[in-house]
Design goal:
Helix content: 25-40%
Distance between the termini: 34 Å
Low-confidence stretches: 1-6
Shape: globular
Number of strands: 6
Strand content: 5-15%
Mean pLDDT: 90
Bound molecules: zinc ion
Order of helices and strands: HHEHHEHHEHEEHE
Length: 244
């Protein structure tokens, strides 16, 4: 158990009526009421130092400042942090959220973000958290945007306003595995737009998303936000690809 006070009485009553399910095994959490099973916790691998000074991805060689990708491709974002390395358990957990409506798993990830990365997120001095949008038709079908839920839970606890609706997704993008990095980025940039230019008070933002793999989504969103007048963009993702 962590040091934070267990559960307020109301929450405990709710967790008896609706027992919490574990974001990794999908069973009732053990011990009951925990956000994740003690035995499942190690299956999610925390991002450890040394990390890339740009994207925050784990790197092998601590003498390097940047990962191979950030050395090769210039990034427009200022930096980013992630909780876990993307692995099989991570992929399974996120597809349960998205396709089986297991929104409650996001409680664990948001809690973890605040507990482990809260200080670093606050040090970014962001004016807002901006969830990476999904296309409206996808949002309708799924009923929610996982990035938006994460942003709201984290923003509430760190007292950073959440601004959704400013960055919009106007096009669905086809799977882009066959495209090279530059073509993929171009394609993606055209999928996002902003409602208007950024208000003057909107200088620094943190993009929030579930996964950073090639980084092209975060990079595309950053470019679109900066064109709209945002000065500095950081990102937070729950998972980050490793060894790419
Ligand atoms: Zn479990
Ligand atoms: Zn990097």
């Amino acid at each position: 158990m962590t040091g934070r006070p267990a559960h307020p009485a109301g929450e405990r009553a709710v967790s008896i009526l609706y027992p919490r399910r574990c974001p990794v095994c999908g069973g009732i959490t053990e011990p009951p009421g925990a956000l994740i099973c003690a035995k499942c916790r190690p299956l999610l691998r925390e991002v450890r130092e040394p990390t890339c000074r740009k994207c925050g991805k784990e790197i092998e060689d601590e003498r390097e400042e940047y990962c191979a990708d950030c050395r090769r491709h210039r990034k427009s974002f200022a930096g980013g942090v992630s909780l876990f390395n993307y692995n099989a358990a991570a992929s399974e957990s996120m597809s349960e959220v998205k396709y089986k409506n297991r929104r409650e798993y996001l409680d664990f990830y948001a809690d973890e973000a605040v507990r482990r990365l809260g200080g670093r997120l606050l040090a970014m001095h962001a004016d807002a958290l901006v969830p990476v949008p999904v296309h409206p038709s996808r949002r309708r079908k799924r009923g929610f945007n996982q990035a938006e839920i994460l942003a709201c839970r984290i923003g509430e606890r760190l007292e950073i306003p959440v601004v959704s609706g400013f960055l919009q997704r106007t096009r669905k993008t086809a799977p882009q595995k066959e495209l090279g990095p530059e073509a993929r980025l171009k394609n993606l940039e055209q999928a996002f737009t902003t409602a208007e230019s950024a208000p003057a008070a909107f200088r620094t933002v943190i993009l929030v998303d579930d996964i950073y793999t090639t980084g092209s989504t975060v990079e595309a969103c950053t470019r679109v936000l900066m064109r709209a007048g945002v000065k500095k963009v950081f990102f937070f993702t729950v998972f980050i690809g490793h060894g790419m």
